[in-house]
Predict the structure.
Amino acid sequence: MAIPHPRDIQLAAVRWLDERYPFTKAIDEAMYQRVPNFANAFYYCFGGMVFVIIVLQLVTGILLAIYYVPDARGNPAAAYNSVLFIQNTVYLGWLIRGVHFWGANILIFMVLLHMARVYWTGSYRAPRELNWIVGAIMLLLILAFALTGYLLPWDTKAYFATEVTIKIAGSPPPPQLGAFIKTILQGGPVVGPSTLQIFFTAHVFLLPALIVLLMYVHFKFIRAHGIAEPL
Amino acid sequence: MSDPQGTDDVLKEGPGAAVAEPKEVQIIELDGHVGHTLEPEWKRLPIGPDNILYPVIVGIALFPLLMGDAGHHLADDMPDEDTHPFFPDHFWPYPVIIIVMMITLGLLAAFVQKNLQLEAPADPRAVTIPRPDWYFLFLFQFIKLGPELVMSVVIPTVIIIVFLVWPFIDAIAGPRVAKRLGWKRWPVPGRNVMSGTGFVVFLLIIAVLEVWALAGPGFCLPWLTGPVCGA
Amino acid sequence: MADAAAPRLVTRRTFLGWWMAVILTSLTAAGVLPILVYLWPAPPKGQKKGPVSITLDKPITQLNDGEAVKFNAPTNPNTAFIMADGGGDNAPGDLAFGGFAVKNAGKVDVLAINCSHLGCSVALNDAAKTFDCPCHGSRFHLDGTVLHGPAAYPLSHLTWKQGDNPSTIQVDGIVLGF
């Protein structure tokens, strides 16, 4: 029995897949569709850069979660000690945490640049209104990421910044509503272990799920609309 | 080319059947959509489904592939000289951007570790001035300028709502304003005296607040409620 | 044939549609409500209200007029004080981790440390005889009333009484249980 050429095995696999879903056609459409020349301007790539950094944040975030302990009981708390452990003891822990920290800062900066470009060129206009709204919600999500992530090291700065944030969130009238929001956010009468647990859950489970979902919707819309006309 | 069913032997019989026609495979069409104007076959990379590098192409196209079908775009109606293919002409800067991004973040993480060092462990009895990160600093300064509820809840909420539904405000109010001013049309912000200037003024206000806060507690400016200092 | 000419208002199809909508809505509500209740924080084990004995740096009887002494809530067990009144971000029943005993015009007040604006800890400004908030620049008189905004409400009082010996006071507080 002759041994088939590897190329033929691959071709057979591709055909098998194509009979089930038009992969070849999808790849052709993705790779060889034509893009307007005006989309080569440098300010059209801010969105792509945001995507790259979000992926980087997801990867470094997962790596940090391996060593982080969301426990704020005691002083110094296990949360604080685990961040010190990542920073000083884990191999390349300083690098992973540094990339996550600076990635967050540059991410916010890039998101603002991207939004400024979209606004300036009027790319939010019909038929792209919904995509603007999805993007605006993602900006709020990213700020929520920054806010919840800021508390996780559980140092003095983080503690008091969160207290002020929760005070602001709990100030809308009537007082019962404010008190309700405050109690739900801090999970008790004061900022304490349950607050850290809630912020950790939001930062690590809720917000990543939401942002990945919205990113998918965002790109889906871009694929449907194409690149907006220039200024 | 061989096919998985092994029908080659049958077709080889008889004169003129030396080049076997591959068996017709039913390709699933998505919503009867005809797709984009694609690069002609001869201009594409010589990497077809039978090439050993095809899995690499699939890997690169995996993301747009997951995005599925796309709509009819502006580029599909543009003359050839005004457009270029997505791959490789439009795609090549992105790997460069990814590499530059990772190197930048790595260098920041390596040489600017100061910003991510921890303070003392959280202690509710400590007396500190909580100063937020740069992306909330202007808001921190803004809160000092008036009564709490208005500055920290009412105005930010109004700004966020305007920002979310901005495309609709622009589409409904814009043409009316243009008509009243005797303009022929309502241009995009980049070419619009009103929405463009408004945007620049908004950014300037934020920049002033940010610089004011960064100038520190010793830097005070007169204000309606008395002198207000930086953070 | 009369039915075909004049379609009925409620067909079997629309009735089933409405019925399904009602069922699905109530199922969602039945699922969401327990989640909301679940999110409401339960008091941690070991939470206990009661007077907390505090030893002051300087006995109240020795305080001069316009003098204030700062004290912190005990850490072992982790305890906080309960505010007796308050406005703005301080409400009666809110918690504070520190306070000031102030003698002002012959009268002694015990104030919670939290600024009524956004809850930062105020500091005693000895020279000006005021409490200054480092966060947003609010200032208070020694009796807790507002001298300068953005705060709009006075500092909160703590409920207290004289302790067994001259340098201790009993302040209403709560053992937090963590």
